[in-house]
What we know:
The complex is a heterodimer of chains A (282) and B (541). Chain A is mostly helical and 282 residues long. In chain A, 70% of the residues lie in helices and 0% in strands. Chain A has helices spanning 18-36, 73-108, 110-126, 129-140, 144-171, 174-181, 186-198, 200-222, 234-242, 250-281. In chain A, helix 8 packs parallel to helix 9 (234-242). The longest helix of chain A has 36 residues, at 73-108. The radius of gyration of chain A is 22 Å and the shape is elongated. Chain B has two domains: 17-283 and 513-539, 3-Layer(aba) Sandwich (D-Maltodextrin-Binding Protein, domain 2); 286-510, Roll (Dipeptide-binding Protein, domain 3). Chain B is globular. The chains are: A mainly alpha (282), B alpha+beta (541). Chain B: GO terms for molecular function: peptide transmembrane transporter activity. Chain B: It comes from Actinokineospora auranticolor. Chain B: Keywords: Signal, Transport.
Amino acid sequence: MVTALDTPTPVRRVRIPRAGIAAALVVLAVVAIAALAPGLLTGVDPNHADLGATLRPPDWDHWFGTDQNGRDLFARVAHGAGASVLIGLGATGLALLGGIVIGTLAAQTGRWGDEIISRLLDVVLAVPGLLLVFLVAAVMGASGFTATIGLAVGTVPGFARVVRAEVLRVRASTYVEAAHGLGHPGPRVVLVHVVPNAVGPVFALATVSLGAMIVASSSLSFVGLGPKPPTAEWGAMLAAGRDLASVAWWPTVFPGVAITLTVLAVTVLGQHLQARFERRTV
Amino acid sequence: MRSRSTKAIVGTLLLGTVASCGGTTEAAGPSGAPVRGGTLRVAVADEPECLDPQQSPTAASRFLARPLVDSLVNQGGGGRIAPWLATEWRVSTDRLAYTFTLRKNVKFADGAVFDAAAVKANLDRVVNPATKSLLAASLISAYDKSTVVDEHTVEIRLKHPDSTFLSALATPNLGIQSPATLTGDPAARCATVIGTGPFRSAEGFASQKGISYTRNPDYAWPPEGAENDGAAWLDAIEIQIAPDAGARYGALTSGQVDAIANVSPTNARELGSTNGFVLHSTPYPGIPFSYWPNTASGPFADRKVRTAFRLGIDWPRITENVYFGVYGPAKGVLTPTTPGYDASLESQYRFDVAEANRLLDGAGYATKDSQGYRTKDGKRLTVRHMWSDAGVTDLATQVQAGAKEIGIETVEENLDGGTFVDRLLKGDYDLIDTNFAAPGPQVLQVLLGAENIPTPERGIANNMARYTAPAVQADFARALEAADQESQFKAYADAQRKITDDAAVFPIYDDRTTFGATSRVNSVAFLADGAPDFHQIWLSQ
């Protein structure tokens, strides 16, 4: 879990069977519904505590059982998708934006600018990702927002490096030379011709890193640096159920399975997209 | 668990007075003749910011310093005061002068001789403002001065009579330390404590690491009536700090340690039914873990609303849900093991939703808003529960759910230590929670005496209910003037009845101290402040 923020570098290309991709899509569709409109999956209030029904094992009334406060775990897992996935998505989105801007700047600002930006990125890269989030949380207070910011900051350098290399590659291509030759102004050439052609690989990279981000955001909630209780969040649910594991398995197993399935699905899909992208460009 | 930092100190100050030795374990280990030898490895939850209990107010410093220091007197079961380093004492008729005759041939771990001058040096140091004592000094706030009468006689004078003075002397906070260690910068005295106790620690306490003790081979002066009248059975004790309850439990069950303190309720339940392990546990005398309403302002200034809150929430069910039967539900203002407890009031602590709703209707909160909360003049019946722990406990979550059933909204306010104290002093809250361990019914006055309301001028004090009912204050005065224990308990019984009628506190559960150990650990008994008595523990070989 701790290495989750390291830039993913899949060493082996595994050809994923169509059924696997279909399954991943189904899982992601369910997670997306849960994240955006959990009300479609359950009509139960995830924060309603039924004091007469604490730690009930799964049954027809409570598909995933109830937690130690008598709250329906199916409703909490469904509503927890929002916090868990949105932090991952938000952090990936922010990191993409930051990576593209900084990577392009590094490639475009000449030798000195490139040196300064690249060395600064090295410094950030040298700090373990989760440590960086702890730092942000310590300064700004623990919340879903700071977790998003912290995760994004830790991921920007990896993305920026890829963008920088791509910008340098694309800039040397003949159509960019042609655009310059036609007398288009420099910034316009960069924005219209260079960047759009350089960001492809980083998008593929981002889908793979999204899985790692979701795991990381759950890790943060697990140690209490995520959304505040009683907000349902998968990592926080794992933490709350941990002490009860010897008495009741369901409070930890269901959020754990939700995290695992989501990350698996995102990673499968990310690798598939990356493989397709590489076949197209190479 | 309580967060460390400011809150830990505040919390401990609020937890205030606790007594010293005594108490029994309810789950005794295997019997047999004690065996000398062995090292007891223990994992505990909390570490003190300073080991010296004359400076630190924390329970952790009392726990870790108790094996090192003895006290002048010992407080045993039932609150009885027994001789320890003082073999006898005389109290003057005006109750202002205490003359102690000290035990002879007692030596500190550094070789110094224990005498009247050492007692004087300790008490003078505790009250010296430079010591910055956060608890010990307030325990003996009546202290005026000490006079060395002869080598083994010391006279202590008080500024005013104080019936709790001997109890205070029995705490580790007033434990007697070697005079050579009492001079100089107090902050430099936070790692090592040198006393006359059954154990010594040369290296002392190191944060994150813990503390190691070795037996004091010369020890021959335990409190009167102690089970072990000589040197400790254990060769050594190694205490490590493990804040996480799960980690402590894992360390015990995997054999990394022989015993753990503060067993979580789930672990306690499991341990009790696991072969090879014993859960030692004892109830605290004093005041149960309770929610305290602000009786001076806000919705709880109305007695009907307070009574409805107490009757309308199923406190025993919440206790069972959260603590799995490890802690029993509270049935009164005091815990049943407290001397002077009035059991006749138990029937008033019942669950009666219909009566609660009737009272709330009568208090003017007869209408409900769209979310089901009661309102009066369009304003929702909301109470703010203030605390400074991180997160929301399961208990608070369930109280919130229980209150919602009778239409009361409970808002959880997690505050940082500074804001917490600020609002405590201003009375800017509706609910606050604490328990309070104490050897006798006098604790009622500590928590509900009008002179103990926290204010900016007075500082932190324990009447967080801000309760001033004159009839109850009169009972407290009558108890202090009482000539014998019977009439004293009668006055406190009157107070308990009035406090119950007034719903000035919402008692939730009777706290217990827990110590989980392997069955090799024998003869576990507790001191009154919850620490195990390491002097009498022995290990099967």
